[in-house]
Every structure is written in C-alpha cells, then in structure tokens.
Amino acid sequence: MHFRYYYNLLCAGEKPLTILYRMVRVAKIDDAVMRVFLSYTTADEDFAKQLGSQLSRRGCDVWDPSEQLFPGDNWLLKIGEALKKSRAMVVLLSPDSMRSEWVRREIEYAVGDRNYKGRVFPVVVRPTDEVPWILRKFPILRANGNPADIGKRIATALKRVS
C-alpha cells in the first residue's frame, strides 16, 4: 500500500490506530492473506472503491489501480506484477468496462492462470449485454448498488476456496 492510500483513509475519518493496524497487517502479508486484483474502468470507480474497502475490512489485500498507479509509473509493469501476486480477481462489469482493452486483458490473464482457479468474480455494476463468453462460465454477481453485500459474498466465497 502506498502512503496516499493511508492519507486518504485519514482524510475520510478513519481512526489513526486503525490505519496503523492496516499498515502493520500489509507489512506482514503472507500466503494466508488473499490478494485480490480489482479490475474496472474509471466510470465505475466509486463502486470499486466502496467494494475494495469492504473486502479490505474482511481481511483481503486489495490491489486497486487508482491507489497503486501514479504518474511516471510503468503501468504495464505494475499491473503485471499485481496480477502475478494476486490470487483472486473481482471484475466490475458495465458497458464501459466491456469496451476497455485493459479490463479485457486483465480478465484474459486471470482466466488463463491457475492461481486464479475458482476465484474470478464478475460483478455487474451496470447492465451490459457484452459480457465475454468466458466470464459466463462463472457465477455472475449482481451489485444492485450494494458494495457491502457483494464484499461479504466474495469474502465468504474466498474463505471457502483458499
């Protein structure tokens, strides 16, 4: 996690002790913590942030590009490293994300890597008919504007398959 992430938590009213706990927990990450790659477009960023927060509260280490990628970074390298280190993917489905080449490549990586087996979670945040055929093999979750419920369902499913 980057300093900006913790600063944003502080600005959002998170208690300093809670932030310190998160910093220590992230510093001690090992294989017991499920690393989750969050794939979405900026049009779905509000829901993505809320969902990422819900997953973090439930013990997941969430990789969110809006918190991890900065101007001047080698984005391809950082995204590639994050995909390699992650063991689960949550992909937010919407008309915008289905037109995104980035999202499609991230999906292709996850469905082709056995580290993600049984841990790809497509979530419909806005209705779309353009869902790739490969994602139709997975249970598709409907967000219905409720990141807390989706976060709980994904975290529960991850505990069963980890």
Keywords, separated by commas or semicolons:
162 residues, alpha/beta, 5 strands, 49% helix
Task: Give a verbal description of the structure.
This protein is α/β, with parallel strands linked by helices. The protein folds into two domains: 1-30, no CATH class; 31-161, Toll/interleukin-1 receptor homology (TIR) domain (Rossmann fold), CATH 3.40.50. Helix content is 49%, strand content 13%. It is built from eight helices and five strands; from the N terminus they run H-H-E-H-E-H-H-E-H-H-E-E-H. The protein has a five-stranded parallel beta sheet with strand order 2-1-3-4-5, sandwiched between helices. Helix 3 (45-57) links the parallel strand 1 and strand 2. Helix 3 (45-57) crosses helix 8 (147-161). The longest helix is centred in the last third of the chain and has 15 residues, at 147-161. It is globular and about 45 Å long. The relative contact order is 0.16.
